[in-house]
């Protein structure tokens, strides 16, 4: 069973010091150690940090990208509805 993380808790994780969390389709991802690898750069992840980034994610990525990184980055699932 995945750890359940509230959107309010995700919202507290927006810098490398507090970890950088994003929500994609109800999954919570810790992208702190992925920032330097992200092809779009750190600024893109900074803009979506602590939020539901589903819309932005699917605009630029396909399901293969999510599958590729899920095992490494997914830390849980959200509880309740996250704000876009």
Overview of this protein structure:
There is one protein chain. The protein has helices at residues 7-10, 42-48, 54-60, 63-73; strands spanning 4-5, 14-15, 19-24, 27-30, 74-78. By secondary structure, the chain is α+β, with helices and mostly antiparallel strands. Strands 1-5-4-3-2 form a five-stranded mixed β-sheet. It starts with a strand and ends in a 6-residue tail after the last strand. The mean pLDDT is 91.
Strand content: 15-25%
Largest sheet strand order: 1-5-4-3-2
Alpha carbon gap, first and last residue? 25 Å
- Give the helix/strand class: alpha+beta
Low-confidence stretches: none
Arithmetic mean of pLDDT? 91
- Number of helix segments? 4
**Largest β sheet strand count, sense and barrel closure:** 5 strands, mixed
Shape: globular
Rg estimate, integer Å = 12 Å
Order of helices and strands: EHEEEHHHE
Number of strands: 5
Helix content: 25-40%
Brief summary of the model shown:
With 84 residues, the protein is an alpha+beta fold. It is built from 4 helices and 5 strands, in the order βαβββαααβ. It has a 5-stranded mixed β-sheet with strand order 1-5-4-3-2.
């Amino acid at each position: 069973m995945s750890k359940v993380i509230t959107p309010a808790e995700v919202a507290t994780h927006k810098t490398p010091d507090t970890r950088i969390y994003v929500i994609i389709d109800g999954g919570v991802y810790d992208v702190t150690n992925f920032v330097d690898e992200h092809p779009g750069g750190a600024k893109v992840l900074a803009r979506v940090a602590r939020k539901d980034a589903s819309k932005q994610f699917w605009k630029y990525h396909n399901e293969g990208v999510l599958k590729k990184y899920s095992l490494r980055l997914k830390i849980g699932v959200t509880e309740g509805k996250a704000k876009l």
